C-alpha cells in the first residue's frame, strides 16, 4: 500500500492561525506511527500517511475543526495577519470568505496569497504571490511578491481601493488567468514578467 499527502490548517481567527492542543492530539492519534508531518512556509502542515487510512483520518480531522487542502501545485490556504485590530475592523469575515474561494485550485506552480487587516501589513502580504491589504473600507491588491530568495522582491500595486464586493472576484480572475496561461512550474513572479502586469490587470477587471 502506498502513501498519500495532504495539507492541514486550522483556518484563522483573531490572534492568527492557531492549532488548538486537542486538534494536534487528534492529528497525532489517527495518522499512524509511520506518518510524516512537515511544517510548511505557508502555515500548513503536510501529512504523508498510508493510503488505506487517509479518508477516515480526513473525516476525523475535519470533525475536530481542521481544514483539509491538497498538497502540491495548488493555491494555498490564505496566509493572514493576527487581526490585532479586531475581527470587524481588520476584515476577518472577508478573509474567511476569501480563504474559502481561493484554496485548493490547481495552478502551474504553488500560489501563496496573503491578507493583512491594516497598513501595518504584519502578515507580509507584499512578499506573497498575491497580497491583499485592508485600507479602511476598501482593499489594495499587490501581486508578484517573492520572499523565498536571496533577492526578495516586494509585490507591485495591482489595484487600489477595491470595494469589498469586488475583492474576491478580482482575486479569482487572477488565479484563473494564471491557470490558463502559466507554464508548468513557472513561478507567478516570472509569469508576471512574461505576460506583463497590465495584461493581468485587464484580465482581472470586474
Please render the helix and strand layout as text.
Layout: E1 3-9, H1 21-30, E2 36-39, E3 45-50, H2 54-63, E4 67-70, E5 79-80, H3 92-102, E6 113-116, E7 130-135, E8 138-143, E9 156-162, H4 164-181, H5 188-195, H6 197-204
Parallel strand pairs: 5-6, 6-7
Antiparallel strand pairs: 1-3, 1-4, 2-3, 7-8, 8-9
Helix pairs in contact: 3-4, 4-6
Tell me what the structure shows.
It contains six helices and nine strands; from the N terminus they run βαββαββαββββααα. It is α+β, with helices and mostly antiparallel strands and 206 residues long. It folds into two domains: 68 residues, Alpha-Beta Plaits; 126 residues, 2-Layer Sandwich (Sulfite Reductase Hemoprotein, domain 1). The protein starts with a strand and ends with a helix. Pfam families: NIR_SIR.
Keywords:
four-stranded antiparallel sheet, alpha+beta, 32% helix, five-stranded mixed sheet, 6 helices, 2 domains, Sulfite Reductase Hemoprotein, domain 1, globular, Alpha-Beta Plaits, 206 residues
Low-confidence stretches: none
The CATH architecture of the largest domain: 2-Layer Sandwich
CATH hierarchy class name of the largest domain: Alpha Beta
Total beta strands: 9
Secondary-structure element series = EHEEHEEHEEEEHHH
Condensed summary:
The chain is of the alpha+beta class. The chain has helices spanning 21-30, 54-63, 92-102, 164-181, 188-195, 197-204, and strands spanning 3-9, 36-39, 45-50, 67-70, 79-80, 113-116, 130-135, 138-143, 156-162.
